[in-house]
Design a protein that fits this description.
This protein is of the alpha/beta class and 439 residues long. The chain has three domains: 2-134 and 256-317, FAD/NAD(P)-binding domain (3-Layer(bba) Sandwich); 142-253, FAD/NAD(P)-binding domain (3-Layer(bba) Sandwich); 336-436, 2-Layer Sandwich (Enolase-like, domain 1), CATH 3.30.390.30. It contains 14 helices and 26 strands. The protein has helices spanning 13-24, 39-44, 46-65, 73-94, 151-154, 171-183, 202-214, 264-267, 302-317, 345-351, 366-370, 398-410, 415-419, 430-437; strands at residues 2-3, 6-9, 29-33, 100-104, 108-111, 114-116, 121-123, 126-129, 133-135, 148-149, 163-167, 186-190, 218-220, 224-229, 232-237, 240-244, 248-251, 255-257, 271-272, 275-276, 289-291, 330-332, 338-342, 356-361, 376-382, 388-395. Helix 1 (13-24) runs parallel beside helix 9 (302-317). It binds 1,4-dihydronicotinamide adenine dinucleotide (NAI). 1,4-dihydronicotinamide adenine dinucleotide binds at residues 138, 140, 167-173, 175, 190-193, 198, 224-225, 252-255, 300-301, 330-333. It is found in: Cytoplasm. Its EC number is 1.8.1.4. It is an enzyme of class 1 (oxidoreductase). Belongs to the class-I pyridine nucleotide-disulfide oxidoreductase family.
Length: 439
């Protein structure tokens, strides 16, 4: 049996960041990973998809000069491998610090302080579970890896399908719809809800969807998929059933936490199908055991997992932090990009008396016009005291813009203070300033 200070199960952005941070603070760490380090984000999520987004941007630029331009998909796959390998090497270096040991294997709890990987057993006073999530398959058919795929399988495809049906207009569905339409596939999206991307301001989400429709993506909204068979995808809309077929079908109907292999009962850790139950410090029902990232089901975002890991390690070290988990920025890397932080106008209409919604437009911004990126808008939301409480946007580099607002919200800044902050000319950031001037 190996004794250490901290065991971390899972080597994704939650686990590896927590390991590095704990080691820097003097703890001896054992981190156990059954696959490649980097988790979903690096291997089959954020990073490969953002590499594909970049290749789609490059193709769009080429298409504007040459309408016959096509994608070299072998080059796309090669770059994907190079980028993932490079970043994986960086994480392996981080985890090669003298007081971190990376163990390859599948971890299972023996009791509340003991974990086994089959051939070795580890014990520690503190354990962080960071096992992430996997694609959730609704009861509408079977995946067959070649035609009916999750996002992981689609990222391993060796050619661009002529046609692609995507089930679900959430973050994964919308990002792949945008990428494959640019790559040349005929893309159809089927979504159960009235609007795509429910966490986004509905007005912004509608504008984004309309923009993607104009580019040639077909959307069937308020359409629930009931079956996937050899004949294709069957969905019901306004009481009518319809079936469409495609070369490839992506199921993007949400993700579920990876809990099954852990033997959580042996450690006395409470959980539901939605994830491991945690408090605000990410403590589980078992003393000394924490759960961070997708596995607790609170916020399925890589940066949320990393910051939850820092909070958990701070708890172990007896340190106080001021991380504001209620101010959680996020982005959707479609074309155009969309991003948000805090309250939407929909939320304010229902919940915030005396709110103000200030708008800024890309078409009125010098940098956006120079970049030929005039589509997009920003909505700033303030409360009656003028404090910034949310920002939702779509348009080029909107994620970077939302980051500024997120930082200002963390500092409790008001819209009149934002008005007094100088923004570089010409930048897209001036759209935020222009919106603040509208108050
Ligand atoms: P999601 O929960 O965001 O969206 C799934 C969509 O599928 C929903 O809109 C739902 O109404 C629809 N749906 C479910 N069953 C359906 C049916 N039978 N017929 C038609 N529509 C149906 O899930 P998604 O897109 O799979 O993403 C999973 C997680 O990964 C999310 O929490 C997301 O935040 C995270 N993620 C974040 C990214 C980012 O931050 N850029 C990128 C990719 C994923």
């Amino acid at each position: 049996m190996t004794t250490t200070d901290l065991i971390i199960i899972g080597g994704g952005p939650g686990g590896y960041e927590a390991a590095g941070y704990a080691a820097k603070h003097g703890l001896n760490v054992v981190i156990i990973e059954r696959g490649n380090v980097g988790g979903t984000c690096l291997n089959v999520g954020c990073i490969p998809t953002k590499t594909w987004c970049h290749e789609a941007d490059v193709l769009r630029a080429r298409l504007s000069a040459d309408p016959q331009a096509t994608i070299d998909f072998q080059h796309v796959r090669q770059r994907q491998t190079e980028v993932v390998t490079l970043l994986r090497g960086g994480i392996e270096t981080l985890l090669s610090a003298p007081n971190i040991r990376l163990v390859k294997g599948e971890a299972q709890f023996v009791d509340g302080h003991t974990v086994t990987t089959g051939d070795e057993t580890f014990t520690a006073p503190n354990i962080i579970i960071a096992t992430g999530s996997e694609a959730k398959m609704p009861p509408i058919g079977q995946l067959d890896k070649y035609r009916i795929m999750t996002s992981s399988e689609l990222l391993a495809i060796d050619h661009v399908p002529e046609s692609l049906v995507i089930i679900g207009a959430g973050v994964i569905g919308m990002e792949f719809a945008s990428i494959f339409q640019t790559f040349g596939s005929e893309v159809t999206v089927i979504e159960y809800l009235k609007e795509c991307l429910p966490m986004l301001d509905s007005d912004i989400a509608k504008r984004l969807r309309k923009s993607m429709e104009k580019r040639g993506i077909t959307f069937h909204m308020q359409a629930g998929v009931t079956a996937i068979t050899a004949e294709g995808v069957t969905f019901e809309r306004k009481g009518k059933a319809q079936t469409i077929n495609a070369e490839a079908i992506l199921v993007a109907t949400g993700r579920k936490p990876c809990l099954e292999q852990l033997h959580l009962e042996a450690a006395g850790v409470d959980f539901t199908p939605k994830g491991i139950t945690v408090d605000a410090q990410f403590r589980t029902s078992a003393t000394g055991i924490y759960a961070i990232g997708d596995v607790n089901g609170q916020m399925m975002l890589a940066h949320a997992a990393s910051m939850q890991g820092i909070r958990a390690v701070n708890q172990i070290l007896g340190l106080t932090d001021h991380i504001q988990f209620d101010i959680m920025p996020s982005a959707i890397f479609t074309y155009p990009e969309a991003a948000s932080v805090g309250a939407s106008e929909d939320h304010c209409k229902e919940q915030v008396q005396g709110y103000n919604c200030l708008k800024g437009y890309y078409r009125a911004n010098g940098k956006a016009v120079s970049m030929d990126e005039t589509e997009g808008m920003v909505k700033l939301l303030t409360n009656t005291e003028g404090q910034l409480i949310g920002c939702h946007a779509y348009g080029a580099h909107s994620a970077d813009m939302i980051q500024e607002l997120s930082s200002l919200m963390c500092m409790g800044v008001t819209v009149s203070q934002l008005r007094d902050m100088i923004h570089i000319h010409p930048t897209l950031g001036e759209i935020l300033h222009a919106a603040s001037m509208n108050s």
